[in-house]
Specification:
It is a single chain. By secondary structure, the protein is of the alpha/beta class. It has a single domain, classed as 5'-nuclease (Rossmann fold). The protein is 55% helix and 11% strand. It contains 7 helices and 5 strands; from the N terminus they run βααβααβααβαβ. The chain has a 5-stranded parallel β-sheet. Strand 4, helix 7 and strand 5 form a beta-alpha-beta unit.
């Protein structure tokens, strides 16, 4: 399974051809979102009309959420790495959602996620 990070979802939302081509080519793996990524997309909306469009666009995706154990592990990663590697709260939660579901996180954010050893990431296309 592939879980998409926010940077990739933004490319998809903007119909960036390499992003849409990559997703279209994924016929064997589920492509889904950590629920926190969907929330980050809504956070970027500037008005209700934009949010309505974003919610409609997000609707076909399945959302995955962490459980309590994953949240506790995300807390530990955040506490350990936020100062040294710039790992944000959502970064830690998204990473541990992917780890929980044994999914690969599709992202271009190697700087933050690279510090989390259990996490498997994929850079899906060239930017």
């Amino acid at each position: 399974m592939y879980l998409l990070d926010t940077d990739v979802v933004v490319d998809l939302f903007r119909n960036y051809p390499p992003a849409t081509d990559w997703v279209a080519s994924q016929t064997r793996e589920e492509v889904a979102l950590p629920g926190f990524v969907a929330m980050e997309i809504l956070k970027g909306c500037h008005d209700y009309e934009e949010q309505r469009k974003a919610e409609a666009w997000l609707r076909p995706f399945r959302f995955y959420w962490p459980d309590e154990e994953s949240c506790l592990r995300a807390y530990t990663v955040f506490a350990t790495l936020h100062l040294s590697h710039g790992v944000g709260i959502f970064d830690a939660l998204i990473a541990h959602t992917a780890i929980k579901y044994d999914a690969q996180l599709v992202t271009f954010n190697a700087k933050h996620y690279g510090a989390i050893p259990e996490l498997s990431t994929v850079e899906p296309y060239k930017r």
